[in-house]
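Colleagues,

For the teaching module next term, I've prepared a clean inverse folding example: a structure given as tokens, and then the sequence designed for it. I'd like students to try predicting residues themselves before seeing the answer, so please don't circulate the second half yet.
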């Protein structure tokens, strides 16, 4: 990857990225390392060229197949929640690879990221992008995200980029003791939800946070 592709120019420059992280901090994101990673991860490389100039706006953007690249605030917020709540981030499951942007952010915190995606062309592009960025601690599977990834469980953290009506029981079962699930939940109205598995009592603590807007978590796969 050319150095200028990575660094960006004009509306994709480091100065533009720094303005974005300042807005995220003003919006309540406090974790310094999360802000640093957001500032240094080239979001414009996860979009089609026609939309690259909008990469550092704090907004969701289309990536095809009816899917979106999540708003930077949401990526930062969910990553921060995972970091401050989980006991450790060794093995992490991501539900919904999408463009690979959230995957790239997670890969800079977790020892290992297992990312599942139901739309194969999206995941194939994401694989290429992460290879170019030199992020080699990510494992991919083309599958139904609502089923998690049983063969790679248990997970210290699970992050979902799609919203089920109700939390799938199978995801709770794949959480390690002390593990944390960060997931939007709901249909017409969705709420960002943090679920922690109590290591001693093997119970689950649910915390509902702010209202959010995500694509629905759909069953099945598509090629």
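(Answer key — instructors only)
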């Amino acid at each position: 990857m050319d150095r200028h592709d990575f660094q960006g120019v004009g509306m994709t420059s480091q100065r533009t990225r720094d303005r974005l992280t300042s807005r995220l901090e003003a919006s309540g994101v406090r974790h310094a390392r999360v802000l640093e990673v957001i500032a240094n991860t080239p979001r414009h490389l996860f979009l089609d060229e026609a939309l690259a100039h909008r990469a550092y706006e704090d907004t969701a953007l289309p990536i095809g197949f009816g899917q979106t690249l999540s708003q930077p605030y949401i990526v930062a917020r969910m990553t921060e929640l995972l970091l401050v709540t989980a006991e450790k981030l060794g093995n992490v499951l991501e539900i919904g690879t999408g463009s690979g942007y959230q995957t790239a952010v997670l890969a800079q915190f977790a020892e290992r990221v297992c990312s599942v995606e139901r739309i194969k062309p999206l995941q194939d592009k994401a694989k290429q992008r992460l290879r170019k960025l030199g992020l080699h601690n990510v494992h991919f599977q083309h599958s139904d995200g609502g089923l998690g990834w049983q063969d790679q469980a248990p997970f210290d953290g699970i992050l979902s980029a799609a919203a089920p009506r109700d939390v799938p029981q199978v995801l709770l079962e794949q959480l390690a003791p002390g593990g944390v699930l960060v997931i939007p939940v709901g249909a017409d109205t969705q709420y960002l939800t943090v679920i922690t598995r109590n290591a001693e009592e093997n119970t689950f603590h649910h915390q509902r946070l702010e209202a959010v807007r995500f694509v629905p978590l759909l069953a099945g796969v598509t090629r």
